[in-house]
Amino acid sequence: MAAPSILLIAAATLIGCESKATTSKKQDKSASQLEADRGAKPWALDIEEATVDNTNYRITKWTGNTMQMALMSLKPGEVIDLEIHSGIDQFIRVEQGQAQVMMGKTADKLTFSQNVSDDWAIFIPAGYYHQIENVGKEDLKVYTIYAPAEHLKGTVNKTYHDAQKYHDTKHKH
């Protein structure tokens, strides 16, 4: 009878250790995903997972000398307000959700309109006004690449309202 008890204790100990190791790995990964801007250092990541896991309205994750990558999460009805980036091309990839994209050469004449969803890519040439609205029922999850960088390194806007305040005080243009 002692042998089965010892086996049960040993098995429980091993399962507990494995569970702690798995939890530790998940925590390490989560901590690295929460880390803000990595700066101009070599880096690789599962960008789809990072984008879908992001809960911030905007967070820069990598800012180099001539390019920047940010993750964004927009709640239903939220927008990336009408804006223009002079001298900055922008690429946006939709990982989750539905959006309406509008672009044009002038703010009052947005001649391009396209509904997009999972796996769509959006190319915004420098000098074009653009606005993106989450028209779906779930959070819109996108990553965006600016060339050159658009936001200050380390930017974190947890909410749309934080982004509004940031845009008025710290935005580069």
Automatic annotation (TrEMBL):
Annotated ranges, domain Cupin type-2: 71-146
Endpoints of the signal sequence: none
Coiled coil location: none
InterPro entries the UniProt entry points to: Cupin_2 (IPR013096), Flavonoid_dioxygenase-like (IPR052538), RmlC-like_jellyroll (IPR014710), RmlC_Cupin_sf (IPR011051)
One Pfam entry name: Cupin_2
CDD domains the UniProt entry points to: cupin_Bh2720-like
Name recorded for this polypeptide: Cupin domain-containing protein
Species per Swiss-Prot/TrEMBL record: Pontibacter oryzae
